[in-house]
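>> Question from a student workshop board

For tomorrow's exercise we were told to take the sequence and the ligand below, predict the bound structure, and bring the output to class. My setup keeps failing. Could a helper post the expected result so I can at least see what it should look like? The ligand is iron/sulfur cluster.
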Amino acid sequence: MFVKPQLAKLGLFDARVPRYTSYPTAPHFSAAVGPDTYANWIGAIPEGGAISLYVHVPFCRRLCWFCACRTQGTQTDAPVAAYVETLKAELALLADRLPAGVTLSRLHWGGGTPTLLSPALMTELTQAIFAVAPLGPDAEFSVEIDPNEIDEARLDALAAAGMSRASIGVQDFDAEIQKTIGRIQGYDVTRRAVEMIRARGIHSLNADILFGLPHQSKARMTESVQKLLSLNPDRVALYGYAHVPWMAKRQQLIPSDALPTPEARLDLFDTARRLFLWDGYAEIGIDHFARPEDGLTKALRSGTLRRNFQGYTDDQAEVLIGVGASSISRFPQGYAQNAPATSAYTAAIRDGRFSTNRGHIFQGEDLMRGRMIEMLMCDHRIDAAEIRADFGISDTALQAMFAGVTRAFPGMLDIGPDALAIRHEAHPLTRMIARAFDAYDLSKAGHSSAI
Ligand SMILES: C[S@@+](CC[C@H](N)C(=O)[O-])C[C@H]1O[C@@H](n2cnc3c(N)ncnc32)[C@H](O)[C@@H]1O
Ligand code: SF4
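>> Workshop helper replied:
Here is what the output should look like for this input. Compare the format with yours to find the bug.
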């Protein structure tokens, strides 16, 4: 049994450890992948195959101080309308190269705040997307929704377009905490958004909340989680607040001395975790909870839970294409990232070419190490038989790798012929243990771990 100070000392919740939504992580991408490679990878998608599509909208009406997402504030619709035009042009380029008969397994709109689009822009965008590829038979269409930035008309447009999953940002219900993190959102505003979503038959609701915020205590955490449970979300992401003011300048408005210690963060996570478990949620990976009938819970039970740029998923598509500024695509061959600045992204698309300016071509042990890290992040264990079968590594070499990591985390891992497993009490160190399987220069890894 470990004591909290031991876990804290080992770098628990260290903001510089990647969250491993990809391997290698984005700071290791290079100029090796440009528009031509990206176009070739799109052309190599099998005819009639299923892909997933992520659409990035990097705009918000309000800029919350705590937020580490790359987004820009705007009070007018003109830049948003111009951006949607660029997205449509990028989608047309994609349609030109995509093999016939491809359908969408998942469609996700994220940001930023995609719901700041007007209903008319939402409809235009969905039509442009479905002209590239229609939703497949078991597809899901999810949208990130700021409860302060949604109304009946926009939800009508999304429901008419086929949205099946809504993801709302809550963060915390406590008024003092909301003031300190620059995100005011009364319980009534959140509840009203949930009611409007449900009234349209949208069957699935996700909510994001944070632990590790300034002034958060166990009592306040309990109250926030209970309020969230009263809304009965199907999935909850319980993210650790990443305080990285050197990267996210707005966070300089947040008093560092009001932040909980690493040990207190562990207590806050555990307080919330127990409440979700008591309420019947399953624990998914390192920071999610889901109802027993939710797709993530079913995927966990059947060993098909995956991790991608959006976090945990039950999506089995091999290809995820990201459109919009800074979006990253994943192919069996590697990763490709669009230009991060909206200006550079727009300039490329206006020129009639993809904006891809960075990426990574899988090589050497990348796919094997990436799968091991994904297994740890999803299941807290590495299935030795699957790794041997899929990557042809000898049992001796694999056991030597496991033994090396076990020495670095004494008493925290169980190794046997079938698996390396993280002991339950060491689960808070999963990201640290995953990092031990990362062969890239870790001094660069912090850049990808903001949230
Ligand atoms: C891209 S934001 C979109 C949410 C939507 N715009 C809203 O405000 O409701 C997605 C989520 O990232 C999480 N997030 C943002 N900044 C974070 C930080 N510094 N640490 C941890 N999570 C963060 C928040 O939980 C947020 O709901
Ligand atoms: S939390 Fe949402 S609304 Fe607030 S700045 Fe981040 S993306 Fe924008």
